[in-house]
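> example.struct
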């Protein structure tokens, strides 16, 4: 079985659980339009952002559902890179103007329910075009949306002093089903950001207790997944929830390493910074 087929029931269950936890958390905030979840976004802004993703994903899996009504969004989606996602978010949120938390939560629950129903009989390995022309599986879409709910739920919980456990098995879906399978198919222009490339080929092995090992190779500005058993220059062993928080800038690399949420090894770990300079996630 493929990654997507093997974890498809998990991905479907995880996104349903995450959206109910997320909307309950947002609904418990006494002043969602005034409480900052991040430096730039209120709790309501954050909920609107997650809703925009769920609406987009409905349009990707169902040809009868149009893209969100945002002028220029189709062109923006095609050319987005990891370093311009923030500009895309600003564009979308400027046109998705609803900030009533109750309305946003209701619409988010409805959007995820529609997505769940629309993909009930889908091939989890089926591919859609994502940001930057990347090819993402249907299972990967659900894994990505689950991660958005978990990461932004963490933002809100931290700002409001509420607990926010992040199930490791659910968090693991992001890297396993979304990132690895996207690289396996085609990552489009997502990492075409103009940053300095490593001088040589770099192979990095990623492993966790919840996922099989995958070796990602960066060479000449393109990432591929190497065959099993390919020797790696560096090896990253990670705890999925904290690893994702580190990838998206919520905790520092130093904190993740000191707490052993991320353990770096391999014969040439000094090549890792050059790899991560190119292969990284947005902070939004």
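> example.seq
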């Amino acid at each position: 079985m493929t990654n997507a087929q093997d974890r498809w029931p998990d991905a479907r269950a995880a996104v349903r659980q995450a959206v109910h936890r997320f909307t309950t958390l947002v609904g418990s905030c006494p002043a969602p339009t005034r409480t900052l979840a991040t430096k730039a976004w209120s709790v309501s802004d954050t909920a609107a952002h997650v809703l925009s993703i769920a609406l987009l994903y409905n349009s990707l899996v169902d040809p009868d559902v149009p893209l969100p009504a945002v002028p220029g969004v189709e062109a923006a989606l095609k050319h987005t890179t990891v370093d311009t996602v923030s500009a895309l978010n600003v564009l979308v949120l400027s046109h998705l103007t609803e900030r009533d938390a109750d309305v946003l939560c209701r619409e988010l629950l409805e959007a995820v329910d529609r997505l769940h129903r629309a993909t009930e009989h889908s091939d989890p390995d089926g591919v859609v075009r994502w940001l930057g022309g990347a090819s993402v599986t249907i299972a990967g879409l659900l894994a990505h949306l689950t991660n958005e709910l978990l990461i932004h739920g963490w933002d809100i919980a931290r700002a409001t002093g509420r607990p926010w456990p992040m199930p490791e098995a659910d968090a693991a879906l992001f890297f396993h089903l979304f990132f690895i399978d996207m690289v396996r198919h085609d990552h489009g222009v997502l990492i075409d950001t103009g940053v300095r490339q490593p001088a040589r080929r770099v192979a990095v092995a990623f492993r966790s207790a919840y996922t099989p090992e995958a070796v990602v190779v960066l060479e000449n500005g393109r990432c591929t997944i190497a065959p099993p058993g390919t020797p790696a220059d560096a090896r990253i062993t990670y705890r999925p929830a904290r690893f994702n928080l580190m990838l998206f800038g919520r905790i520092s690399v130093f904190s993740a390493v000191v707490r052993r949420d991320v353990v770096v090894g391999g014969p040439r770990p000094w090549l890792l910074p050059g790899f991560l300079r190119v292969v990284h996630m947005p902070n939004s």
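> remarks
The first helix runs from residue 3 to 27.
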